[in-house]
Structure formats: C-alpha cells, structure tokens
Amino acid sequence: MLWLVWPFLFPSALAAQPSAPAPISAPLRDLQFGQLNFLHTTDTHGWLAGHLQEPSYSADWGDYISFAERMREKIEAQGQDLLVIDTGDRVEGNGLYDSSEPKGVYLSEILRHQHIDVITSGNHELYKQNTSESELLHTVPNFRGNYLASNIDIHHPETGELVPLAPRYKKFTTKQQGIRIVAFGFLFDFTGNYNNTVVQRVEETIKEDWFQEAIRDKEVDLFLVAGHVPAHSPEYRAIYEEIRGLRWDTPIQFFGGHQHIRDYAKYDSKAVALASGRFMETVGFMSIDGLSTSKGTSNASQPVFKRRYVDNNLFSFYHHTGLDVDSFPTEKGRNVSQLIAESRSALQLDQVHGCAPRDLWMSRVPYPNPDSIYTWLETKVLAESLKDESRGERPSVAIANSGAIRFDIFQGAFTQDTTWSISPFTNGFRYVKDVPYEKVQLIMEVLNGQTKIISTLQDKTEPSLLPLVSPEQLAHSEDIIVDDEELPVHWSNIEMGDPHQMPLSSNKPAGKVVPGYTTKDDAGEDGDDTIHAPISFYKVPNCIQALISANSSGVPEKVDLIYIEFVQPYVALAAKFAGLDIDFAKESDVYMPNITLTDLILDWVKKHWKCE
Ligand SMILES: *[C@@H]1O[C@H](CO)[C@@H](O)[C@H](O)[C@H]1NC(C)=O
Ligand SMILES: *[C@@H]1O[C@H](CO)[C@@H](O)[C@H](O)[C@H]1NC(C)=O
Ligand SMILES: *[C@@H]1O[C@H](CO)[C@@H](O)[C@H](O)[C@H]1NC(C)=O
Ligand SMILES: *[C@@H]1O[C@H](CO)[C@@H](O)[C@H](O)[C@H]1NC(C)=O
Ligand SMILES: *[C@@H]1O[C@H](CO)[C@@H](O)[C@H](O)[C@H]1NC(C)=O
Ligand SMILES: *[C@@H]1O[C@H](CO)[C@@H](O)[C@H](O)[C@H]1NC(C)=O
Predict the structure, then answer these.
(1) Model confidence over 443-452: pLDDT tens digits?
(2) Residues with Cβ within 8 Å of residue 301, at least 6 apart in sequence
(3) 506 Cβ closer than 6 Å to some ligand 6 atom
(4) Which of 167-176, 250-259, 401-410, 446-455 is predicted least confidently?
(5) CA of 594 to the centre of ligand 6 (A)
(6) CA distance 356 to 168
(7) CATH number at residue 457
(8) In terms of domains, do 362 and 248 share one?
(9) Ligand 6 centroid vs 389 CA: distance in angstroms?
(10) Is the pLDDT assigned to residue 439 strictly greater than 80?
(11) Fewer Cβ atoms within 10 Å of its own Cβ: the N or the C terminal residue of the chain?
C-alpha cells in the first residue's frame, strides 16, 4: 500500500471535462499486474463525460482511453497482455445519450474510440426497437469482431430475418504471451425486450452445439465469459458448471454487471467473476498469473487472480500508470475529451435551470426526510404541479415508483445534465377516477409492505415486469426484507463517493480518508483502490404517494388515482388484491397529456429554485 501526497491537481483543459472538479488525493492500494490484465466497465448508462459534481468519479471517457493506452504500454513493456472489456447498458440515463435526436448519436461517436476487446449488450440496449437496431447498425460494426452476442438474435430491420445480433463467440491469442482464449458474450435471462429481439435463456444457450463445440476445444488457456449478468447469479453458475463439467482444469474469468455494484465471486480456485459498478464511477481491474500459453505450459500452475476497483478519477489514473498531468494524456484521449466537451456544448447540457439549495439523497438519508429526494418529489413536485385542468378541483393521489429517480441532486447548479441523470425515463401519467381513498392506501400497502405478495403476483402473471426500485436496491433486496424495521441498512458493498469532497488545496492535509465505496466481496475488504470511510444507506419504499387535494378539512372519500404509466401493471395487480374491480386497460386515461415526470420536475425547479 502506498500513501501518496499530491499537493496540486488542477482541472486542466488537457483532460477531463472543463467543468469537472479536480480529484482529491487519497490513500491508494496499488494494482498487481499479471501475465494477463483486464480493464472493465459496465452499466455506464451514458456517463462518458464523468461526474461533474463528484471529484471521485470526475474522469471522462477520453481519460479512460488515455488510461487504457498508458496501461497497455506499461504492461506490454513487461511482456504481458491487456484486454479491455465492456458489459453493456451503455445507453439511457444521461443527457449525453438521451438528449440528442435521435438518441445516442453523440455517445456512439465518443464510445467507438476506446479499443475494446470484448463488448456485449445489456438489457437497456433492447427495450426499444430502434435502440437494438442502432446496436446492430452502428455499435456492432464499430467494434467489429469484438462485439459478442451469445444469446441475442434480432429481426434485421431491412430483411426481417432473425439473425444473431453479433457473433456468438470468438477465439483469439494474446499478442505478448500467446494466451489462447475462447470468449463469450451473454445477457442474463431478460424478458422485457421489445419483440424485434429474441433473448435465449442462458440455460438453453449453453446446450447448443456451437457452445458445446467451443468448450470442447482443447487448445484453450482461458475461458473468458463477458456478459450483462450479475457476478453472483444462476446464469453464471450454469455457465460455470457447464464448462467445469467438461474442462475440470481450465481457468475461467467472468466479467459481469447489471446490479450496479462492485462485486467479486469465487466459483472455485480457477474460476472467478468481477462486476465493476455503474455510471463510470468504477474501472474494474483484474490480473491473472499462472496461465498456460501457446508457447508452452512450463509456468502454468495454480492461477493467481487479483482484483481492484479503480475510482474513475485522474488521481487514481496517474498513480496506477506512474505518470503525471503532462505525461499521462494520449493524443487520442485528449481528442475524445475535446469531442465530449463539444458534444455537451452542442446538447447544451451545461444550461442552468436553477440552483438546488441543498443536497437531496435517494438513500443516504431515511425516508421520509427533508433531505430525501422522494420526500421532495411527493411533497413539492407532485403535490404542487400535478394537475390536469380537465379534472377540476377533484382530490387525487399520485403514485410513483422509487426507481423512477436514478440519481441524487447536489446542492448548486441544476443543469440540463442534472435533469437527464435524475430522471431519464420518458414516462407520463395515467389515472382512474373515483377510487375510494382507503383502497388507495391498501394498494400502497401491497406495493410497499408486502414485497412477497407483489412479487408472487408478478411471477404468476407478468414475469417480464421491470422492478419498481433501482438496480442498486434490488441487488440488496434480501438484506432489506430482513432488516425491514432496522434503519439504517448498511449496504456495505455499494457505497458511493461523497460529493462534498473538495479539491485539495495546499492548506488541507493530503491523503485524507474521505467517504466512498468500502467494498466487501468474496476476496475480502481490500478490493477498492481508494481507501474510503464508509457511508450508511437507508431503505427506500418501492413506491411513494402524494395526496393532492384542495380540501384541507380531512382526507377525501374518493380520489383520482394517478400513477406513472410505468407502474400500471403493478397498480393493477395491487388493486385486484385490494378487492377493486377496475379494468386498467379500459378505464384508465392519460393525465396531463404529453407531460412526463421529467417535464414536471424541470418546470418545478425553474419556478422554485432560482439562482442568487
Ligand atoms: C427512437 O425513436 C424515438 C421516437 O421516435 C426517438 O425519440 C429516439 O431518438 C429514437 N432512438 C434512436 C436510438 O434512434
Ligand atoms: C411486435 O409487436 C408489435 C406491436 O407492438 C406488432 O405489431 C408486431 O407484429 C410484433 N412483431 C412480432 C415479430 O411479433
Ligand atoms: C510465472 O508465474 C508467476 C506466478 O505464478 C509469475 O510471478 C511470473 O511472472 C510468471 N512468469 C512469466 C514469464 O509469465
Ligand atoms: C486528434 O485530432 C487531431 C485534430 O483533429 C487529428 O489531426 C489527429 O489525427 C487526432 N489524433 C488521434 C490519435 O485521433
Ligand atoms: C372534503 O373533506 C370532507 C371531510 O372528509 C369530505 O366529506 C368531502 O367529501 C371532501 N370534499 C371533497 C371535494 O372531496
Ligand atoms: C400531445 O402530443 C400529440 C402527438 O405528439 C399531439 O397530437 C397532441 O395534440 C398533444 N396534446 C397536447 C394536449 O399537447
């Protein structure tokens, strides 16, 4: 371990986004290199500009390109190899993707400049017809030969024919060491895709001839399974068992994602899985030593795996490459940082709509709480601005799922960028009229208290329903149910950096331990490169409700039941459970036509959060 003192770090025009905060110096754990090394991103969701209000994650995709290029120089100079992996959900969730028309045109141009050796699709690439078609027509060719789709087919937009989205697998040999690798690219057993794609269950895919042939290849030093699949999951367990059943001795390296957490799974002494967080907060690092190679097996022994979760900032990047502000950036990396700045400017993402008077948190404070984003949403945004003129003064209750909010709000400028990162979805509102208020409360109880009722109903009737809560919370749903009455719930392995970290100035102590990720995984507690102080997280409900009523003399008897259209199937199930006989398909109608939750939030901010 190395305790670094780094007195000055300027947010330079040479790297990172101009408006990004400088990283802070912090105590770091070194990377341990091996014969074969990996860098891994997942669930970037459009955050290729980095986090402009959080120093810990303030590097951009251009900096990541420089990092990969400098790492490759260093590693290859030692006769070792580097591979770069991305496991999907690159789209949806940030203005750099969502705010262009068509969506993703800038993002796709930025993304392509990173050299990626194995890249796969997530579920978000498949929700809409044109998003998956854009993968087929742009991303797959941009990463030709390296995009793998072991279990995804797509109806070709021109011929209609069902074709693989990308090759099922590939075999290649690394440049320096001559390590022979068979690589796959999977998506978990996802069922919420639009009908122009077909996702074959992982458990069926591995019984197919091509997979069986691929794992019977004897000239293989490593099986590499990249996928948008949680590190601990039945899907990866099934792949592991299938390969191990035949190849009892060959090392297997999995890379996964989807849950938005840092995670590491040990299947056996020769098979491990790494998941590398979310939103460009984390660059996952892995190394393997003790692999056989095409040049001989003399050094092959028990493989040794090392993992590290690198905080995405220049302080970490300089440290791990041994370079500095002058020697670190590559020409390509600089060009891409510039391209990101130009794209953000064309999309007007720095346009300021208002100024948040304080931080509002998704799960760092209990709910309800004056500093909870959900309390703000129900008591301010929904209560004050949800109103359809055609419904006059009728009282109403509005229901929104907590997963509709995707990120915290930080004190200070609320920009176009903030709008997209907190509320990237395009959901509007619907309503049914004259619902007894007490039945609405019963519906809320079913949606929130009785997690098991709603999930049982869902499994039986609508297996493809999307979760109501954020992926981070879902990854910890077991802890949450167990800890129902106990607050706070310590989600030790999903902790995030503190936006209050300020750039280090010369009068502050260097190498201070600041709050952030303190990951515990199957290999212990030393995975994070940056040594952080832990942060507590609190449970949030599946759904929140706002009572909107001109009537101050008590609760109304009957209300308009308004809800974000996303939750309609859940509300319909819960209503049935509450003994209501409502056909939501026929009896519901649009509330405030053409207004989405995002519009509502933005209008409220413009009206109430004036900058001084
Ligand atoms: C898909 O279509 C919608 C609606 O027409 C549009 O807003 C969006 O930009 C399109 N997305 C892509 C990736 O082309
Ligand atoms: C997909 O769903 C649309 C309706 O959203 C339907 O018109 C179309 O026929 C379906 N396509 C296939 C291949 O099932
Ligand atoms: C052989 O493996 C050991 C660890 O198992 C490693 O330290 C060493 O660098 C390897 N040698 C070569 C030439 O790869
Ligand atoms: C970087 O951009 C400059 C100016 O557009 C261009 O001439 C150069 O070829 C680019 N370099 C790389 C490595 O992309
Ligand atoms: C106002 O509240 C009173 C008392 O609960 C109730 O009787 C009345 O129906 C409410 N008015 C409306 C318009 O809901
Ligand atoms: C809503 O949008 C549709 C189509 O985009 C348009 O035809 C309609 O007039 C809009 N309605 C309102 C109330 O703005």
Answers:
(1) 999 998 755 6
(2) 290
(3) no
(4) 446-455
(5) 6
(6) 47
(7) 3.90.780.10
(8) no
(9) 15
(10) yes
(11) C
Band (pLDDT 50/70/90 cuts) for residue 475 is: confident
The CA distance from 224 to 173, in Å, is 12
pLDDT confidence tier of residue 482, bands split at 50, 70 and 90: very low
Residue 97 Cα to ligand 4 middle (Å):
23
Tell me which residue has its CA closest to atom 4 in ligand 4: 335
Name every residue whose Cβ is closer than 8 Å to that of residue 51 and which is 6 or more positions away in sequence: 20, 57, 58, 279, 280, 281, 312
- The reply to whether 250 and 372 lie within a common domain is no
Q: How many residues does the chain have?
A: 612
Shared domain check, 387 and 299: no
Whole-number Å distance between alpha carbons of 44 and 88: 8
**Contact between residue 154 and residue 196 where contact means Cβ atoms under 8 Å apart:** yes
- Is there a cis peptide before residue 234, judged by omega within 30 degrees of 0? no
Tell me if the pTM is above 0.85: yes
Structure confidence by residue, pLDDT tens digits, 202-219: 999 999 999 999 999 999
**Which of 75, 81, 299 for a ligand 3 pocket mutation test, highest count of atoms within 8 Å of Cβ?**
299
Output the pLDDT for position 9.
37
Could you list the residue range(s) of the whole structural domain that residue 172 is in? Answer: 33-346
Q: Which ligand is nearest to the CA of 195?
A: 2
For range 369-375, the mean pLDDT: 97
- The better pLDDT of the pair 282, 3 is held by 282
- Residue bearing the CA closest to ligand 6, atom 7: 594
Picking from 346, 366, 382, the residue at the C-terminal end of a domain is 346
Same domain, 263 and 119: yes
